[in-house]
Design a protein that fits this description.
Glycosyltransferase, mainly alpha, two-stranded antiparallel sheet
Length: 397
Amino acid sequence: MWKDHIERYEKELISSVIPFWEKHCVDREYGGYFTSLDRDGTVYDTVKYMWMQWRIVYMFAEFYLAGLQKERYVELAARGFDFLYEHGRDAEGRYYFALNREGVPYMAPYSLFSDCFAAMGAARLHKITGEARHAEAAKSAMTSYLERAKSGHSALQWDKSLPGKPRYRSLGHYMMMANLGAIMNDSFGNHDFDFAMEDAVEAVLGTFYSPEHGLVFENMPASGEPDLASSLGRQLNPGHVLEAMWFLLAYLETRPGSHEKIAKIAEIIGNTLEFGWDKEYGGIYYFMDALGKPHLELQHNMKLWWVHCEAILAALYAYDLTRNEKFLRWFEKLDEWTWQHYPDPECGEWFAYLDRRGELTSTLKGGKWKTCFHVPRALLFAARRMRKIAALPDVEN
């Protein structure tokens, strides 16, 4: 079984997804990348969104580190770094949310995740090059991200909230802490950021997870009790939960004595898949309400590419670490639905946005929220995890 799956995932990555981005995303005139790409790769907007830009730096560095050792991948990552490091920061070192094509600031640095992805991309590039400026960029962005996250006011002066709005802790922050801490540790060869992953494990299992509901909430009041009186408090994001869970499993499998926590996270993955799966049309919902009440997000019942990428990884990690056949069945179910709906064999890469029935709502391959990230990461990491399950060596290219 695994051999066929591995070959399909690796072929899609190497022959379809990477070539699409390598051919179409590079802005050879000004630097950085185009991410607003239509089905055939044509550019439909030139705004450079910082999350998307740094994710490309990260992925091309990751391709090289994964054994797809083509020097041009390092060059593509380094060129993007140069543009972003020169143009992307304000006077206090915070990364803007967006630049225009030429590199002029387009949108204020209100999102701390711009710093998060800058740290991620620069750290992976540093692991390859060993250059001091790549290390400095990663560490300064990480410091900025941690300070802003700790303050509880991540949007700073651009926060539109007023005293009447309750303050919640956000799952997204702890999800990224788990992943970013691991990337920083591996890239610098130390354990300086173990605390970030430990904090993430503690927060997810101790705060965001509700034993009463068997689910992980997206927003949690300081009290640690779900706010069931509001739509924001009842919000569930299955994709975020599943992504966070495989991040935590990737960390815990390296930590002795983590059996109980691994079992609990696997249970959460199973609960989330059961709750989030559309029993009528298949696929996983984008947003959900814990009590089944109307959702404020009108796109709540759409089926998005990244949710299914993360679900596949969560199912594989859960199966590998528990060997519970339930997760193997979930992987097969997710794999079948995902590969039926998202890949584009004609133009390469994957579609992103489907309605509840699984029909395309847009032909874009990249935009404000989609870039060279979730799809190639899922293909690369899923193939790697399947090789581990099947005890096969890593791919060599």
